[in-house]
Amino acid sequence: MNTExxxxxxxxxxCFPESNHYFQTxxxxxxxxxxxxxxSTSYIFIHLNRYTLAECLLQFPNFNEEDDVIIISTxxxxxxxxxxxxxxxxxxxxxxSTTSMDEVINTISDNRLGDKMPTMPLKRHHMISLxxxxxxxxxxxxxxxxxxxxTHYRPASTxxxxxxxxxxKLGVRKLRHIFS
Length: 180
What we know:
The structure is a single chain. The chain is of the alpha/beta class. The chain folds into 2 domains: about 1-125, Rossmann fold, CATH 3.40.50; about 130-180. The chain is built from 7 helices and 6 strands; from the N terminus they run E-E-E-H-E-H-E-H-E-H-H-H-H. The protein has a 4-stranded parallel sheet, sandwiched between helices. A two-stranded antiparallel sheet has the order 1-2. Strand 3, helix 1 and strand 4 (about 45-50) form a beta-alpha-beta unit. Helix 1 (about 20-35) packs across helix 4.
């Protein structure tokens, strides 16, 4: 809490999406406990679920040089979150949305700012590759099958196979179901 003209003003942590007040309130509790323990609280917290996936996919690489990101993901989208953890230098940790607040706080407080934090490993067949992430993003952007064929120099059957594989990793029958 900061004081402004004699009254206390609550400073909310940086969260995405900003409009999710329940998520922001939960993260505020985590940040308050971290600051009480003397830990850095300068993280951006991202809530990754099927409602925020589209916006995250389109805006994800846009971070400032000094930003450190922690992703809290639904179990279904953990493959996407773990991909970002391994491929993006700004992402420091990934937690399932079912992880207890105490476990999140302990993991963050046990690690220095700027270091990657340990996360639950995914089985190899659940990991998403760079190409699969590109196909997922292009599908979200509305690229047609012909566009994907031209971009990746592959026949339609291969593109359909890739989409089916991504859907399987995300626990849905068809890729479009992840966005609905």
